[in-house]
Specification:
The complex is a heterodimer of chains A (544) and B (95). Chain A is mostly helical. Chain A has helices at residues 23-26, 31-59, 70-89, 92-105, 114-136, 152-155, 160-187, 200-232, 245-279, 286-299, 315-343, 352-375, 377-383, 387-417, 423-449, 464-494, 536-543. With 95 residues, chain B is mainly α. Chain B has two domains: 10-61; 65-95. Chain B has helices at 12-31, 41-60, 69-92. Chain B is flat, with a radius of gyration of 17 Å. The chains are: A mainly alpha (544), B mainly alpha (95). The A-B interface holds A 187-189, 191, 214, 246, 250, 254, 298, 301-302, 305, 312-317, 320-321, 324 and B 1, 77, 80, 83-84, 87-88, 90-95.
Amino acid sequence: MSEENTQKHKSFLEYQGKYKGILGWILSTDHKRIGLLYLYTMLFFFSLAAIIGLLMKTQLIAPGHTIMGPQTYNSLFTLHGIIMIFIIVIPGLPAVFGNFFLPIMIGAKDVAFPRINLLSWWVYIIGIMIVLTSQFLGDGPPDTGWTFYAPYSFRTPTNVLPAVFGAFVMGFSSILTGINFVVTIHRMRAPGMSWLKMPLFPWTLYGTAWIQILATPVIGITLLLIIAERTLGIGFFDPALGGDPILYQHLFWIYSHPAVYIMILPAMGVISEVIPVFSRKGIYGYKAIVLSTMAIAFVGYFVWGHHMFTSGMSGRALYTFSFLTFLVAIPSAIKVFNWVATMHKGSIHMHTPFYWAVSFLFVFMIGGLSGLVLGSLATNVHLHDTHFVVAHFHFIVFGGTGFAFMSALHYWFPKMFGRKYDEVWANLGWGVFFMGFLSLYLPMFLLGMRGMPRRYYDYLPEFHGANIASSLGAWVMVAGILIIFANLIWSARHGKKTSEKNTWGGKTLEWQVDTPPSLENFDEIPTITKQPYDYSDHSEKLNQ
Amino acid sequence: MTNDEKTHIVPYKTQITVLIVLIILTAISVAVTQLEFGNMNTLVAMVLAGTKSFIVLAWFMHLKYEKKLFPIMVTSVVILFLLVLFVTFFDYSYR
């Protein structure tokens, strides 16, 4: 690892622009500051939604009324879903680490449209504000679930419109970020960085950006149709007005299934960065990973119907969607084989980001394989709307995106803040979190298979045992989150300062710039001559 | 990665011709609503709307004069959209 410290310029954290204090952050067009603005916003709302999740699991520790009634439970799972999906995992990795590292990793000084980048954060914040008003205004918080399914979403007296409109506004933020990233990647790569010399995290951001641009307008229009139906009484989805409720599900999932790939593709990008660095070995099958990334982005558009197997679609649609769902598993599996093959005979360095990355593989495989169970028509009928779906979803979205987010945070933390965190506490936090995660979600598979439905505040006595294990797991997992956050927050303020450029021995460009990076990242834009994961020097050293 | 593309100015004559064609197509779009094509109603409306969109994209939005990359991207998006419609109609056509 390089001890080189040749910092010539002030870091982006110290740089004094036009504005001082908080204005210097919320009006900054620097991609790194915008990335951190997203990070802080998300961490705040993640904490809020995690507390809501904990309250829900506490309610489920015993049958009947434990700490809340059905209406409160319905509102809480709706709010938990809206925050986690629309505020955290959809913007997630691209907004935080994409903003911070995409320009640096491709050798650019900023994104293509820095002002639009800042605008997208502001639009995101305005969307959040609108969503939050749904909790306090009108006839009570919405109780539809984050999916706003028709026809209930027009008939419930609760305050659905602001939540729907807020999600609509946040969609614009997503589209703006997507456009920014596509243009940045097309136009601003360093000289010599051909498409097949681009690191894999930017590649996954590229695939994600296209989904953001092409799929998000569909949900935008769908949410507008809900608003038109509720306010003007036009019958798009309500059978009483001549509409078709299944059309709503089609439109909703045409966006929301690709949105799962918005969440997971950048996560796969992070894992593709972390594994080679801590294995000191070039990524196995770079081109296969690139192709599978784009294949997932493409095929992911055509599998939405597997959310609707029990909704009353035609038989031919059922077979088609089931077949396509199985197809999308292939590129995902290719990536997993590539990551494992990268580690094989590598020189493994055990550090916190690597722990998160390998545990990602473990939980992602469980999530992925349980997805195939749901993609099969017959088993889906049995498991639809049960806790099995909740477990599968959390293994993919929390286990996939969440673990990759933590891996990214621990991997790039020294670069972002110029300080080191305490690895003992970080590893302890990971261990506690991992144990809590498994105890929380594994019993849900069992509960779902035995028939416990999702989205109910109560259950039959035979489900009690597994629910106790699951609820206790939730408390353990939150303890893990507290350790992790306390360690990182303390370290960001008081951790040991470092200006070491290459903390982990990485080969990509972010490990060649100052720590923390300067305002414009590079003194001179580098010329790229090598593949991004060229560890031939390391192998030579080992062979000597 | 350079910024030296030449711009293309479309003559007024072309712009006005395109405008007239679009107005005629709009009139046709309204007129065909008086005719009954049965199952083909949606298809007829989509073909007319698609033709108008193509004209706007090609001339007014200058795709005709851009580098190949842009028409390829737009065509890919249209193909994606058509595929999504096609898959959706596996449900509606056979329900």
